[in-house]
Amino acid sequence: MRDWNALVRERLKFADLSQEQQDETFAELASHLDDLCEEYRTQGLNESEAVTRAIHEVTNWRDLAKTIQRAKREEGSMTDRTMNARTKRLWLPGLVSVVIALVLPPLLFMTLTRFGLEPRVLYAHARYGATMFGFLELAAWALGGAFGAFLSRRAGG
Amino acid sequence: MSKRIRSKIARGSAELAILSLLDERPLYGFEISKCIEERTGGALHFTLASLYPMLYDLEKRGWITGKWQANAAGRDRRYYSLTPAGKKQLAPLRQEWRGFFQALDQLAGVSHA
């Protein structure tokens, strides 16, 4: 049985992919060639013909390496795909949640005061005022969390 | 038709084909290419060189995700499945292509050709 992994490793040269990404790609492409070769065998080709035909699936390995590299690499300097996925699914939504939770309550507070709801007056009214601002804060946290979860889910998290 | 437009159409149709298949069930690369070829009667054919860059790009965009697991024969294969983001992309993509073919039909009567 042919060592497809070695063949792919030999022909596909990546300049800018992590070792983990390279190993995964080699393994995946090798398994594809293996399946293809097996299919050609079931169609009646002998081992050598099947191998030759499977190899001809790729006409230019250098181009393939470049295209795969471009497809796997993120834009700009952030070349680590995993890190970028994590950024989109975890860090960015987390940051947005925190910002919303921190910024929204003062904004609501300021809006309320603009409409004549003087905080001191509300606080002076003891229970209801305090409860209202407490509620706003909790609502902002919940909203921030929900929006963060939405962003994370949208990015495939 | 310019090469650029043609390649955009080819790329768009390939994306739609892959996302539509993965909407049904997770598949690995070889299965994807076989399914596309079988279902289109050979009209669409993906070689290894055309399929995997597309899969990796879709994965980078977060529309599909790959996971290694054993297939029916017990061999490890990387199965791709549609993410919620990919599912969301599929409906407008289908709509876009439907509109494109309708427009082309009105112009050139392709469905009666």
Overview of this structure, please?
The complex is a heterodimer of chains A (157) and B (113). Chain A has 157 residues and is an all-alpha fold. Chain A folds into two domains: 69 residues, no CATH class; 74 residues, no CATH class. Chain A is 78% helix and 0% strand. Chain A is built from seven helices and no strands. In chain A, α1 crosses α2, α2 crosses α3 and α5 runs antiparallel to α7. The longest helix of chain A has 34 residues. About 4% of the residues of chain A have low confidence. By secondary structure, chain B is of the alpha+beta class. Chain B has one domain: Arc Repressor Mutant, subunit A. Chain B is 63% helix and 14% strand. A three-stranded antiparallel sheet of chain B has the order 1-3-2. In chain B, β2 and β3 form a beta hairpin. In chain B, α1 packs across α4. Chains A and B meet through α2, α4 and α5 of A and α3, β3 and α4 of B.
Chart the SSEs and their pairings.
The complex is a heterodimer of chains A (about 160) and B (about 110).
Chain A: H1 4-11, H2 19-42, H3 47-55, H4 61-72, H5 81-114, H6 119-124, H7 126-154
Chain B: H1 3-24, E1 27-28, H2 29-39, H3 48-60, E2 64-70, E3 76-82, H4 84-108
Antiparallel strand pairs in B: 1-3, 2-3
